[in-house]
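Protocol check, entry for the methods section draft. Step 1: assemble the input record (protein sequence plus ligand SMILES). Step 2: submit for complex structure prediction. Step 3: store the structure tokens unaltered in the notebook. Ligand used here: flavin-adenine dinucleotide. Step 1 record:
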Amino acid sequence: MLKERPLSEKITALDGQVFDVVVIGGGAVGCSAAREAAAAGYSVLLAEKGDFASGSSSRSSRLLHCGLRYFEAPNPMRYFARHPARFLTSLSMARQAMRERRELVLTSRERVTPIDFFFPIYSDGPYRPWQVDMAFGLLKRLAPGDVPLDYTRLKKPEALQKPMVAALGNRAKLAGAAQFTEYQFNWPERLCIDAVLDAEEAGAVALNYTEARMGDMQNGARKVTLHGPDNAHATVRGRRVMAMSGIWIDKVLSAPGKRASRKIFGTKGGHIVIRLPEEYRGQGVSTINSWGEPFYCIPWHDLHYIGPTETPYEGDLDDIHVDEHDLEFLLSETASLFPGLGVTRDKVIRTWAGVRPLTYDPAHPKGSRARELHDLGPEGLEGVYAMTAAPVMSHRDSGRKITGVLHSGLSPSGTASALSYRPRLPIENSNAQPIAEGAGYTLADVRHAVRHEHARTLLGVLFRRSGVGLRHWFSDAEIARVAEEMGAELGWSEAERETEIDRYKRDITRLYGVPNRRDRAETNDDATIPQGERA
Ligand SMILES: Cc1cc2nc3c(=O)[nH]c(=O)nc-3n(C[C@H](O)[C@H](O)[C@H](O)COP(=O)(O)OP(=O)(O)OC[C@H]3O[C@@H](n4cnc5c(N)ncnc54)[C@H](O)[C@@H]3O)c2cc1C
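Step 3, stored output:
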């Protein structure tokens, strides 16, 4: 058992308190909402049932994309001519994407990496070269040019000079390629942690490993019960409750026994991680898979990841991983995209999967990507709001929209403060021992993560706070060293330290393992996995 006494005490001490806003869910949306609301002067409680960013926000394709995908359709001209309203929605989403891209690149350069992307154009494909020119021309006009797309349309001979394009299949039908700059989040989990720290600096109370359940209204504020480790619990009240709980929104909304209509349509997306030869480094491909869905091969340090899949998901929301079916699909799509690269299952180093919290809309059988902020008042949940289909890349705007709703009807009980959105970098301590060679993260950072960034588990430090885990395979000795450092801070006994190391290894296998190499008998032993790490 992990020692969580300080956290349980923190929870118990909140009993009876009233907040302007209770935010349920510490993913990209909830953390950003907490930051914006706290900075606007509202008293804020942010409760996350697992670790911050342990939900969909840590399972995405990590793209800060330019919005090209919103214009992708099997026959775009005919499709949008038939559905002009959808064209306007796509245009507005693309504008939003270009704005987010610009803001994040200009203000959080340390958190994003530019990648050289190629979009192949085939003579028998859905897009003519002029249509691709038109789409990029449109995107260019949607935001100021200080974060350029660097768009060039390459004719076939030029395109084939690029190793990534030369590796593509169906070369006989290749008419050329669009080359452009796309951005990637270095690690989206850290955006969430940074937002939590900003929110706290602005006065918010932030709790991870604390499940929140909504109750009834009492004297103008809604009851929310908090359930944390060691049976710690408390009842607080929120004048507004923001259910920013991603794929769990319908579950959260059903807690008070009211029948809110369905809000979420979840689609699962999986990725595989592979190592390609050196010549492909830094280059990626954005294309359409055999189902007509966007499909990417994305550079990631000295690796690449390929995906995502897109299938409706009705399974266990707390146990999402790439299964055999996803893996087969990803391998077969990869084989037709890059037939010469020999990407077979034994070349897959890691996998991961997540479920997109898309907006439920019967008119969209695969869920709607239109972000919506739902007011639950008309459905009997006065003062409750929920946001669906909000991508990581729009998290700042989502936070501002949510705070905008607060402003229309609730005055902040405190004073506003300015936000800098300054990325929090590892602490400077050149004498401290790195957690692994070249990791750029030290044991001093581990101590800092436990003391000041709510880290409670090895996964929380090695993957979410440091971002090193996805690109580095820690040796047993490295894991043990970090566990020792954390244990000293959290008061773990030797047995507790060993339990945590075992749990970490199981979590890694379950969340990032390759299906045929996963020992499901062991990794399905969810009873030993803390609730916080199960999603
Ligand atoms: C395969 C895939 C690819 C994607 N690619 C991209 C991309 O390239 N770029 C991009 O911008 N977006 C992408 N997305 C979308 C993006 O990941 C999600 O839309 C976004 O992370 C949603 O954030 P969220 O905060 O709403 O949800 P989440 O991150 O899931 O956060 C919700 C949180 O609520 C918590 N919670 C639930 N119930 C409770 C409760 N009762 N009490 C307390 N806490 C609770 C959960 O533990 C969870 O941490 C992708 C998603 C997937 C799955």
